[in-house]
Amino acid sequence: MSETDKKTAQLEEYKPSFTLKAEDYEPYIGKVRIEELKRLAGSLEGMGWANVNSTLMGGGVAEMLRSAIPLARGLGLQAHWYVIKGNSKFFQVTKKFHNLLQGIDQPISLEEIFGAYIDTIEENVRNTLITSDMVVIHDPQPAAMIMNGMIFGNILWRCHIDTSTPNYIIWRFLLPYINQCAGAIFTMPEFIGPGLQIPLYEISPCIDPRAEKNHQYSDKEVLDVLAPIFNEQNVDSGRPILAAISRYDIHKNQSSILKAFKRLCQERTYNPPPYLIFVGNTATDDPESGAMLQKLKEQAGNNPDVRFWVNVKDNDRVVGALMHIARGLIHVSTREGFGLVVTEALWQGTAVIGSKIGGIKKQVLDGRTGYLVDPLDVETIAAKMALLLDHPEEATALGAQGREHVRRNFLLPELVRRYLVLLSFYSATSRELPDFRLDDLSYSEILHTLRFRHPYLPEPS
Known about the structure:
Layout: E1 12-14, H1 26-29, H2 31-42, E2 48-53, H3 60-74, E3 78-83, H4 88-101, H5 110-125, E4 130-138, E5 151-159, H6 168-178, E6 183-186, E7 200-202, H7 219-233, E8 241-245, H8 254-267, E9 275-280, H9 289-300, E10 306-310, H10 315-325, E11 328-331, H11 340-347, E12 352-355, H12 360-363, E13 370-373, H13 378-390, H14 392-409, H15 412-426, H16 443-450
Parallel strand pairs: 2-3, 2-4, 4-5, 5-6, 6-7, 8-9, 8-11, 9-10, 11-12, 12-13
Antiparallel strand pairs: 1-3
Helix pairs in contact: 2-15, 3-15, 4-5, 7-10, 8-13, 11-14
C-alpha cells in the first residue's frame, strides 16, 4: 500500500524542494553504514511514511523532519509531513498537556480539553485523508486524530517528552488514543508512561550534519557570521562566551544558569570577564515563552555581561557559529526529552554542562564530553563553568570527544535507519523484530494485537 497524496482542507503539508542522497552522508558516517542504509531502503522502495505534528517551524521535531523527509525521499520512499492547524487557545491547552505530562501540576478545564483541543482536532480532520504504510503521530498535540477514522495504515505515536510521572487525568485522557496505535516510540525507556498495551520502541533524536546550523565553521567563518550581531550588541569577540540556547521555557531552567553565572562572577575575577549569552526563538506552539523571557530579563537586571538574543536574523548560521566559538554550552533542564541543542553543541566541538535529566545523560558523558550536574545545584554549575573557563585545553578535549560521540550515535542517517526498520516490520517486509524494541512482545503477539485494525497483515507462521 503506497501513500496517496490527498489535498486537505486543514492540514498543511511540508513539500521539500530538494531530496538528499544517502551518499551525501558518507563523509560523516562512512561507506559501510551508507551501504547498509541503502540495502534496507531498497526493499521498501515506493512505500509510504507519513508524519503529523503541530508546527513547521520551531522545536526539535520540526528540525528533524525538515531533513528526514528529503533523505527518505532520496532513498525511494513516499515520505510526507503534515501539520495540524490551531488557534492560540489550542496551543495554550496543548502546552498545558506538555507540562502536565511531565509532572507539573496546573489547572485545566473540561472546556479546554473538549473545546479548545477536541474541537480543533475535529476541524483538522474533517476533510483530511492520509493513507500510508506507516504514519507517525508526534507528541500529544495531534494524538486525538488517531481515532477519527481519517488515517489509514500502521499508526505509531512518537513521544518526545518524559511521561514517566504524568498527571493522572491528562494521561488517562490520552491513553485510549495511544493504545489504539500499532506501537509507540520513546526517546528512552525511562520516559514510558504507565498503562501502555502496545509494542514500544526506542529512537533517539538526531541532527543533520549537512544542515546550515551544523556546518563545521572555521574561526574566520565564525567571526564573519557573528560580526553583525556582535557589532549591533557591542559584544567583544575576544572575551570568552558561555552560551545557553533553548526555548524560553520553565523546564529549561534558565533561572539556575543566571544564578550560577552571578555566583561565578562574585567568586572569581576574570580578565577579560566572560559573557553569558542566551539565545532563544519563539515557537508557534509555545505561548508561554514571552512571559518566561521577561522574567529572565528582570532577573538579569542591568548586568552588561548577560545578553539575550531573541529571534535573531540568519538564526541557524548565528547559532552554529556561536556554538563553535563558545567555551561551553550550559543546558541544565529540569525536564528534557532529549535536548538536540546539546547534540548540536557537541557536534561543533563544544563541551556541555548538562543536567542529569532525560536524554541529556545519553549525550553528556561526565568528564568525557562535558559535565553532568543536578539542575538546581547552582554551586556546582558555577564550579563547572569555572573549570571550562580556567582550563580551555580541557574544554577543547571534551568537545572533540563529544563530536565523535555524536558522529557514532546521533546523526540523521541513524534516525532514518530506525524508521526504515519499523516500516519494514510493520509492512511485513521483514518478520524480524526491531532490535530497539523496549518490550518483549513476540511477532505473533504483535500481529494478534494489530489484526483487528490491520486485517491485511499476514498470519503468523
